[in-house]
Design a protein that fits this description.
Helix content is 3%, strand content 43%. By secondary structure, it is mainly beta. The chain has one domain (7-114): OB fold (Dihydrolipoamide Acetyltransferase, E2P) (Beta Barrel). A hairpin with a 5-residue loop joins strand 3 (32-33) and strand 4 (39-48).
Amino acid sequence: MVKFEFIRDTERNQEVAQFNAKLISMSSGPVGNFPSGKEYYAGTIEFTNHFGQKVQRGCIINAANHAKGMSEGNEYLCNAIIRDGQTTPLVVCSHLPASGSRATADDFGFNVSTATPVVNANPLVVA
């Protein structure tokens, strides 16, 4: 079973979980606009769900991310966003490769027990 860790974004009244997914397909052009006016593409991703099953689901891709050269068949970092009062998550696929080597706490000599607590941290900014 896969565990998705949702983080509370109190500024936007939503829960956000990051995960890796394979980009199966994407639209050839923008299909809509965010309230900010920025365009987005539609896509289909494949990932392992909470029950351990491989599933294909729809997502959106920011036009700015698409412009950075995303390719079908590659794995990317995605966000599942569930806003308060909604039952269907919005899935946003970024241009960041899932296989990238991510920094660890050890890289910075970070110790969780001595960290300063942060109030109203904003882990994600969505267009």
